[in-house]
Hints:
Layout: H1 2-18, H2 22-33, H3 38-44, H4 54-88, H5 107-121, E1 125-126, E2 132-133, H6 135-138, E3 164-165, H7 170-179, E4 184-193, E5 205-215, H8 220-235, E6 240-248, E7 251-260, E8 269-277, H9 279-289, E9 300-307, H10 308-316, H11 329-332
Parallel strand pairs: 1-4
Antiparallel strand pairs: 2-3, 4-5, 5-9, 6-7, 7-8, 8-9
Helix pairs in contact: 1-4, 2-4, 5-10, 7-9
Amino acid sequence: MQTKIHQLQQEALAALEAASNAALLKEVRVRYLGKVGAISQLSEGMRQLSKEERPLVGKLLHELRTAFTQALEAKEKKIQEQKDTALFQGLDLTLPGTPLLRGALHPLTLLTDRVVQIFRRLGFAMAEGPDIDSPWYCFDALNTPPDHPARNEQDTFYLPDGRLLRTQTSTIQIRSMEQAPPPIRIIAPGAAYRRDETDATHLAQFNQLEILSVAEGISLADLKGTAEFFFRELFGPETECRFRPHFFPFTEPSYEIDIRVPSLNNKWIELAGCGMVDPAVFEAISQKRGDKVYDPDKISGFAFGFGLDRLAMMMTGIDDVRLLVENDLQFLERFVS
């Protein structure tokens, strides 16, 4: 038995030495270490030995297995090194390497983050809602009756089950009031969808940010002060704001907000819509909640919102909104700081 072990060790090590590639090396490993391999067969034969022979033979078999395993690992490492060397033969080390491109946040993301930071300083919290919603959240709760032009199927993306892609992020305001009693101070950024023809100033999917503040004693002065503070923080202290009467179904009174920024073109630009929350909106929320915490005789609130895409166009100086969604690296590289 001892003679067989010594002969097998010499044979196995010689087979390892002769293996010239990974495939041959695998065959050698299976031949000697596999379940029916030569070393395993010798181990099975120990059952036929006497008690006196087993310790010595067991020691020799352990030494054989250890020696073969170490030689196998060394051979595997050698073959891998040879493979790596062959792989890099002929490589010109003087060639320039592949440049590592530096990424950056999208201009819309940068703008949204900046806007959110300003409103957080005023005590507003972030709120979110689904992009696909029911007509109640998109229209009915916002005092927009079924015969209103905004509900035209040619203007809005409807799904077969009657739901639709939200046309504005005002749905988030409705959901926030439905879920929590006043006071509420939220900002609601997100995507909105309308069937607009794509051109330099319109996209079927665009980005909005709306603001809602509801509590007892909220007045038009609070709306005016909040809006003016925001735009002056965003564009600079020299920014002028003016409020023009307008109509929105969900606010009363309603206004358009124009701004004039000396550092841009110093012209009046219509940028946002705003107003005091219409009592009909509070009544719809109360019916949905089943209580009177949004009693329009006791509380009031203001809301205003604007398109982030248009705001980004103003602040970056671009004249085509499609640049914001085309993933043109030459355009996006302008915002790498």
